[in-house]
Fold this protein.
Amino acid sequence: MPKLPRACTCTTPHKTSYLVFALAYANNETGTRSYQLAYPKASYDTARANASNLLASACVQRELAQLRAEMVKASVLDHERELIWNSVEAKQKHDLSAHREAVMDHAKLVGKLVERRQEIALTETPTVFEQQLRQRLAHVDVN
């Protein structure tokens, strides 16, 4: 049976090493490399062995969740800022199609515009039009 992480009992701010580990891991470093950044004196084998234990820690998991949430929020804000900038720049250049596209993309991003898509059910039996088309194509000489 897999071990479940123990509840985080940290009542004081997390150790700096936990924060460094979580930040490195959240920025796509391996567990071993993240551990070595948090504990520079640790050997490779020690880092490899202890990284999974630290990663299973509830305190580190909580830090990772907070960091990922902040990264997602920052990413959305950066994208929104870029769309607004593109809109303003296009408007200044009197490029109305680019301005319209940037405004529409921004509206989609902030949830003010939702694309509607119609789903079409495909039937197994051919329609009357398809039957007529097949009959006509059967009489056409390809050569």
Observations:
- The first helix runs from residue 16 to 26.
- The chain has six helices and no strands.
- Residues 2 and 27 are 26 Å apart (CA to CA).
